[in-house]
UniProtKB/TrEMBL annotation, chains A, B:
Residues 5-256 form the MmgE/PrpD N-terminal domain. Residues 300-464 form the MmgE/PrpD C-terminal domain. The lineage of its organism: Eukaryota, Fungi, Dikarya, Ascomycota, Pezizomycotina. This is Uncharacterized protein. Transmembrane segments: none annotated. GO terms for molecular function: lyase activity. It holds the Pfam family MmgE_PrpD_C. Belongs to the PrpD family.
Amino acid sequence: MATHHLASWSHNLRYSSLPPEVIHAAIKTFYNWTGCAIGGSNHPAKAIAYKTLSPFFGKPTYSLLGRHHDADGGAGGYKSVDAQHAALINGIASHVHHYDDTHLDTIIHPAGPVASALLAVAEWKGSETKISGKDFLLALVVGVEAECKLGLAVWPEHYDVGWHITSTTGSIGAAVAVSKLLGLSIEQTSHAIGIAATQVIGLREMFGAHTKSFHPGSAAQSGLMATVMAQGGYTSSLQALEAKRGWVNVVGATKSTDELQADLDKWLGIGATIGEQDGVGLPDGATGRWEILRNSFKPYPCGIVIHPIIDGCSQLHHDLKARGLSGHDVASVHARVHPLVLELTGKPKPRDGLEGKFSFYHGAAIGLLYGKGTPSQYEDSVVQDPEVIAIRDRIQGTADRSLNADETRIVVMINDGQVLEKHVVHAVGSLEVPMDDKALEMKFKDQCMGVLGEKVDTASQECWGIEIVEDVRSIVKSLCT
Amino acid sequence: MATHHLASWSHNLRYSSLPPEVIHAAIKTFYNWTGCAIGGSNHPAKAIAYKTLSPFFGKPTYSLLGRHHDADGGAGGYKSVDAQHAALINGIASHVHHYDDTHLDTIIHPAGPVASALLAVAEWKGSETKISGKDFLLALVVGVEAECKLGLAVWPEHYDVGWHITSTTGSIGAAVAVSKLLGLSIEQTSHAIGIAATQVIGLREMFGAHTKSFHPGSAAQSGLMATVMAQGGYTSSLQALEAKRGWVNVVGATKSTDELQADLDKWLGIGATIGEQDGVGLPDGATGRWEILRNSFKPYPCGIVIHPIIDGCSQLHHDLKARGLSGHDVASVHARVHPLVLELTGKPKPRDGLEGKFSFYHGAAIGLLYGKGTPSQYEDSVVQDPEVIAIRDRIQGTADRSLNADETRIVVMINDGQVLEKHVVHAVGSLEVPMDDKALEMKFKDQCMGVLGEKVDTASQECWGIEIVEDVRSIVKSLCT
C-alpha cells in the first residue's frame, strides 16, 4: 500500500494545505539549492560532464544555472541543454562543494535530486503551460517528503551497508515531485515511482571522487525520465516500494522484511498522512510531521563535524577584534570535541582545498583568522597560505566523550597572557540553531558573487520571491550569466 | 584488485587471443541479439519509450533497428536517434519478447546491455574512425565475460533477494565493452567501471511490466554514459567492485564479505585470466573458462521451463505427420515434468498471448498443432483460437521429481487407439542440445520477416558475416526499414 498511498497523498495535496512554516522551509530549501548550483557551476566535475555528454544533448530548453566554464579552457559562458541533461548537470553542480542542504535524521541532501529535476521541467514545459512559484514549491515539498520518509524507512542499515541515501531515495523523490508538477494521475504516479525505484543510484565508495556529485544529478535525471515515460503509458509495478522483491526489501540491507514493512507503513502508509485536503496541517501522532521542517543548511562547505570548531573560532575572531586583536595574536588554542571529529577530520597538515575540508585544524584556523568559513577559505591558496598554517600549527584537539558531536569547548591563550573561552552547545546549522534567512542570504551571495557578479542581488531577490511568481521561467533568467 | 584486473584484462586482450569457438559464440550472440531487437521493434513498450523520450533526443547518429511503430498510430517507419537513446531503445526492443540469449549459470541475458551499447557507439563514432567487425566482436566478448563473471561472483543470493541480474551486471559489462571499443586506458576503464557500478538498475518486482525490458536498455545507456564521462576525465573509485562499500558488498545480499571477496577473486581476480596476450586460449584451472561459450539461445519466446514440452510436442507433431495425422487426431496427452514446471507455468486457461507464455498447456498445444513455438504462436488470436483450445484441454501434466528441469516424458493417445511416446532428455536450447546455426537462422528470419520483409535474407547474411566487415555501419543499413 505504501506506493499507492505515497502517490495518492502527493496527488491530493493542495497548496492551501501547506502550513506557512512549511512554505517558508520550501523557499529556503529552493534558495539554498540555487546558491549551491550557481556556486558549483564552475567546478571541473560539471565542466567534464557537460563536455563529454554534449554529443547527446537534445533541443536546448533549459538554461544551466550560473556560468559555464569549458573543460578545455574554452570561452564557456551561458549554456542551454535539454531538460534531462539539465537535471543531471545542475544536480552535479549543486552537490559538488558538499554545501547543500541536509535532512539530519537521514543525512539525505534532499534538494539536489528534486529541485534539479523540477526546475528543468518548469523551464521545458513552461512554454506550453506556465508553472507558477506555488506549483513549484508544492511539488518541491512532496518530493522532499517522499525521499526523506523513504529514507527514514530504511535508515540506518541502508546507509551503513554502503548506499548513498541521497540518490537512492532521490530518484523516487524526483519522480513524485515531477509527477505532481505535470499533474499525473495516482496510477501514473505509482508507475513513475516504480520506474524510478528500479534505478538505484549511488554507492558510498564513490565519496571523494567526481562520481559522488553525479549521484544527485543522476537521481534527478532518472526521476524525470521515469515520470515522462509513466505519463506516456510505460508500465511498472504498482507495489514497487513494498513488494517482496520491491525497493525496500532489496535495498534494506540487514533490516528484516517485517521491520521494513512496519517502517514503511509508519512513514508512508495510511496514518502517516500530513496536510491532506482539509488543510488542517500537522495531525497528531509521531509520524505526522513534515520532514522539510527538519531540513538544515550548512554554514560551512565541509564535513558537518567540523562545524562546531569553525563556529566557535569565528565567534572568538569577533571577541578578539573587540579587543583590538586578531588571530595572529593567538599563542595556542585548545579545543575539546567529540571523538568522531578527530577520527574523521584529524588531518593536521592538509595539502589542498579538498584535504582542508577534512581538517579540523584548518577549520579552526580560518575561523580565528577570517571569522568565517566560506568556499573562499577552502581554496588551495588559503590552505597553503603560511599565515593560515602558522595559526593551524598552534591548535590542539582533545577527544571528549562527554560532548555531543555538534558541541565544542575552546580555550584560547593570547600572546599577552589573556585567556578566552567559548562553549558552543549546538553549532550553527543544527536544528537547534538553524541558519536564519539573513545568514542564508550571506551564504548565497558569497557563493554566487564570483559567478554572477552584479546580478547577485537580483538573483537573491528573485529566489526569495519564488512564491509569488506566475512563471518560474522568469526567475531562471536572473540565475545565469 | 578485481576492478583493476578486469580493466587491465579487457584492455590487454587481443582479437588474436580469441579461440575460434569464442569468436563463433560471439557471432551467434550478436546474430541472435539483432534478431530479437528487430523482432521487438514494433512492440508498444518500445513505441512508448520512443515517444515519451523524443523531446530529449540529441543529434541523430544512430538508426533504430527494425521498423518504428508510432505509439499513437502515426506513420512510424525509419527512425534515427542519438547514441545514448539508441542504446536504451534497442535494449528495450531486444528484451521485450523474452526471446534473447541466456547465460544459464546466472540467467543473465548478456547481449542486451552490451550489444545495444556497442552498436550505438559503432555507428556514432564510425564517422570519425571506422569500427571493424573484429573490433566489435572483441568488445562484445569482453563485455559478456565481465557481466557473466560478475554475476557468478554474486550468484545466487543477489538474484534471490530481488535484483534483475541482467541489468545490475549489465551496466558494468556495457562500460567494459565500450571502453574496449573506444580504446580507453586501464585507469580510464576502471573509472568507467566505477561510474557504471554506481548505477544499479533492475528490481525483479518489475517482471510482468514494461519496466522489465527497460532494464537491459537502461544498463546499456548507463554503461555508455559512464564510459564517455570516464574518457573525459570524470573520476570514480578505482576499487568500485571490491571496496568495503563497493558494488559486490552492497548488492551481494546475504553473502558474507569474505565469500564475496573470494568469489570476486575466483571469477575476476588474477588467476581467472583467460586468453591473455600470448594467444594460448584457455589456461588450466576451473575458472579459466569463457562464459560466452556457455551463452545459450532460446528456441521459444517463453519461460525456459516450458521449452521441453514444446520441444517434445513439436517432435510428436512430425511423428504424427509421418503417419498422415495431425494434432487434431490426438485424444489425450500425458506429460511428466519437473515440479517447477507446473508451479511456474501451470496456467490451464491462458487468456491472451502474455498469459500463454506462462502456460505449459498452451506450449504443448502449439507444439502438437504447429510443430513450433515462435512469436506467431503467442499472438492473442492463437491463444484464443478454438482449435488450439480444443487440444489444450486434452493435455495433462504430472509433477515428477525424478526428472530434470529440461526433461519431459510424454505419452500421446491417438483417436484410433495408437500410442506415441517421446522422451526429451535435454530440451533444445540447453547447453547439451544447443540451437545450431541453422535453427538460429530460422529463429532470426521468423522474427524479422514481418518487420524487414524481403530484406530479411540480406540482413541475416550481413549479420553472419560481421567478422569480416571493415565498418560495422555497413551492416546497420540492412537491419532497418
